[in-house]
Amino acid sequence: MSIHASIRRRTAPDIRAMKGKAPIVSLTAYTAPLAAIVDRHCDFILVGDSLGMTIYGMASTVGVTMDMMIAHGRAVVSRSAAALVVVDMPFGSYEESPAQAFRNAARLMAETGCGAVKLEGGAHIAPTVAFLQARGVPVLAHIGVTPQAVNALGGYKVQGRGDDASRLMADAQALADAGAFGIVIEKTTEAAARAITAAVPAVTIGIGASPACDGQILVVDDILGMFPDFRPKFAKVYAELAASADAAVAAYADDVRSRAFPGPEHTFKDRP
Ligand code: KIV
């Protein structure tokens, strides 16, 4: 029996059942080695389309493809055992119709082994959420700043100020009524996030939306200090991996240039 078979992986209903009980811990992961670490500490892992920026160096998530999400989703599922894995539906894979969304969501689930998908949008996307949910696809919704709509939003500005709070509330209620088990709330005012969290039965997962949510998510690269030149204000940095990697590569280069490599403990044995 494999070690994986002895651990029961969390499901979307398990995450939904945490509402009002315990804060939900979540991070993104895109690769197998990091998935193994994140899996030990998080309730769910998001294979976010932020991988367009973190892995592929794109300027936004708009160019991310189904094939990218499938390759990274499969890697994350392969090295995680306990956390629910949620895979992002990329821009253009679900907006056209509920049928298009189901076709691509089914592909993501069948080809990665993930337990849920995430898609962006408010009340207008609720019929699609209901269509997926009714066909066995658990959905994590995403409102507030929705990065796939960056070209329409005109940037990543805080949402939910003034009258905008009632629009966000209506979006959240429509998505929860449609059966979303959770709603990511990105970069909104605390008041908007707090009101939505109190109003909907779905769990709310904040990112830059205050501790008032049922749980939190961050991009793993941000908390690990992978991008020293880009640090979202809402993401605490817990390690400086880019600086450590830079120092390690510099030390290696110094060793090679001073002919100190390989060191005595790494001396290659002469082949017989
Ligand atoms: O793509 C992503 O990583 C996300 C999170 C930031 C919520 O959507």
Can you offer a commentary on this structure?
The chain has 272 residues and is α/β, with parallel strands linked by helices. The chain has one domain (4-240): TIM Barrel (Alpha-Beta Barrel), CATH 3.20.20. The protein has eleven helices and eight strands. It has helices at residues 12-16, 32-39, 51-54, 66-78, 98-112, 126-134, 150-153, 164-177, 190-199, 220-223, 241-257; strands at residues 24-28, 44-47, 84-88, 116-120, 139-144, 182-186, 203-207, 215-218. It has an eight-stranded parallel barrel, surrounded by six helices. The longest helix has 17 residues, at 241-257. It is globular, with a radius of gyration of 21 Å. Residues 28, 46, 48-50, 88, 142, 184, 207, 217, 219 line the site of 3-methyl-2-oxobutanoic acid.
Overall pLDDT: 93
**Computed structural class:** alpha/beta
Give, in spatial order, the strands making up the sheet with the most strands.
1-2-3-4-5-6-7-8
- Beta-sheet strand percentage? 5-15%
Counting DSSP E segments of at least 2 residues, the number of strands comes to 8
Amino- and carboxy-terminal Cα gap = 41 Å
CATH architecture call: Alpha-Beta Barrel
CATH top level label: Alpha Beta
CATH superfamily: Phosphoenolpyruvate-binding domains
Q: How would you sum up the global shape?
A: globular
> If helices are DSSP runs of H or I spanning 4 or more residues, what is the number of helices?
11
Estimate nothing, just give the exact number of structural domains.
1
Q: Helix content range of the residues, please? A: 25-40%
* Cofactors, ions and other ligands in the entry: 3-methyl-2-oxobutanoic acid
Order of helices and strands: HEHEHHEHEHEHHEHEEHH
| CATH topology heading | TIM Barrel
Gyration radius, in Å: 21 Å
Low-confidence stretches: none
